[in-house]
Design brief:
Layout lengths: L4 E10 L3 H16 L5 E7 L4 H7 L5 H8 L3 E6 L15 H8 L4 E7 L17 E7 L28 H17 L3 E6 L5 H14 L6 E6 H10 L6 E4 L1 H14 L7 E5 L4 E5 L16 H13 L3 H17 L16 H21 L4 H6 L13
Helix pairs in contact: 1-9, 1-11, 5-6, 7-8, 9-10, 10-11
Length: 386
């Protein structure tokens, strides 16, 4: 028997509801692990966030950062608390520090509708919304966050949008590479009619597009993008944009599929990657056991894709299939989506469903759940996304 390959994962539960949703993500990861052939996961938990700042004076200790660098991936819950701030008045955001220090320039935000019940839009069925936002995550307007605090008596405050050739080219290239594996369409969202930095970004997008002749392109301004995402979300496949624009549009897009609790994310670099739900720490529901863990569970699937191993990729598809199966009934949700399940109950349901799906596949049987979901995966083939 071959020696199993082990992937090391730094687990950063974070603050408030972060530990709750991370527990469910880890639960599903362990359920997947039991089904994979020759793959194991070593989890190393570290304290990062506002709570760590209150204990040690540093929300992201340098020693912890170095330990994260040693891991194959980082799984993060949620970080920051409204009342824990730097002297400048801004909140602590170690998750953004991680992006910058590890050069995680590719902010991947998949947006997929699993059930019409979850969308405020009418007449859109499962899969009717299925696109990806690729957000540049290391520069843009966010780069101004390191500016000095503005004095209370100041008459002027400015922030600078920073766009570099390296930064724009690599995020555009990554977006085109993804579009080439999906529906062959890539949309640039910018404000090139007003901002010279955005005209520069567009020029680089156009240059990169020449290397992908089969991928169709569209260029729209960010204000129009906000309109079209609501009016015709089905028209989008891969969207690439600047940091701040991506931050705003990702939240809008999450609202189309049920909110932040349904929106996974990945911050990808060339060597390191962080996987986390798109939502924040939600202190108003801390300790109530009702946080939606689906975004975290789907982020675990993105992490398994990142490992680029045939077995982990199969595990990622199993997670997505299990989530689709659990969400088939509108009541099988946490209260944010009108259901009555607790955080733990929903995580249990996904883990149990995944186990049932895999057991049926590997035994060659056909359970009712298998028939309903039309799962076509086995040790010799790859699951299709729902």
């Amino acid at each position: 028997m071959n020696t199993p390959i082990t992937f090391t994962v730094a687990v950063l539960p974070g603050d408030s509801i972060g530990p709750d949703v991370i527990a469910e993500g880890v639960k599903v990861l362990r359920a997947v692990e039991r089904q994979l052939d020759g793959v194991r996961f070593e989890l190393r938990e570290y304290s990062v966030g506002a709570g760590e700042y209150l204990k040690s004076g540093d929300p992201l200790p340098s020693a912890t950062l170095e330990k994260c660098r040693e891991c194959d991936a980082i799984l993060l819950g949620a970080m920051g608390l409204p009342d824990v701030r730097w002297p400048s008045g801004v909140e602590m955001t170690p998750q953004i520090d991680l992006r910058e220090k590890l050069d995680l320039y590719g902010g991947l935000r998949p947006i997929k509708l699993y059930h019409p019940h979850d969308s405020p839009l009418k007449a859109i069925g499962p899969g009717g919304i299925d696109f990806v936002i690729f957000r540049e995550s290391t520069e843009g307007l966010f780069s101004a966050r390191h500016n000095s605090a503005v004095p209370a008596d100041a008459a002027l405050a400015t922030d600078t949008m920073r766009i570099t050739r390296v930064g724009a080219e690599r995020i555009c290239r990554r977006a085109f590479e993804l579009a080439a594996t999906r529906r062959q369409h890539c949309t640039l969202v910018d404000k090139a009619n007003v901002l010279p930095s955005m005209a520069y970004f567009r020029r680089i997008f156009d240059e990169v597009s020449r290397d992908f002749p089969t991928v169709k392109t569209l260029r729209i301004y960010v204000d129009a993008a906000a309109l079209y995402l609501v009016q015709k979300p089905h028209a989008f496949d891969v969207i690439v944009t600047e940091n701040m624009f991506g931050d705003i549009l990702s939240d809008l897009a999450a609202g189309l599929i049920g909110g932040m609790g349904m929106a996974p994310s990945a911050d990808l670099g060339d060597r390191h990657a962080v996987f986390q739900p798109s939502h924040g720490t939600a202190p108003d529901i801390a300790g109530k056991g009702i946080a939606n863990p689906i975004a975290t569970i789907l982020s675990v699937a993105l992490m398994l894709d990142w490992f680029k191993h045939p077995e982990t990729r199969r595990g990622a598809e199993w997670i997505r299939q299990a989530v689709a199966a659990v969400l088939k009934e509108p009541e099988d949700r946490t209260p944010d989506l009108g259901g009555s399940r607790t955080t733990t109950q929903l995580g249990d349901a996904v883990a149990a469903t995944l186990t049932e799906l895999c057991t049926a596949v590997l035994s060659g049987s056909s359970s009712p759940l298998m028939q309903n979901q039309a799962i076509l995966c086995s040790r010799g083939s790859t699951c299709s996304q729902p």
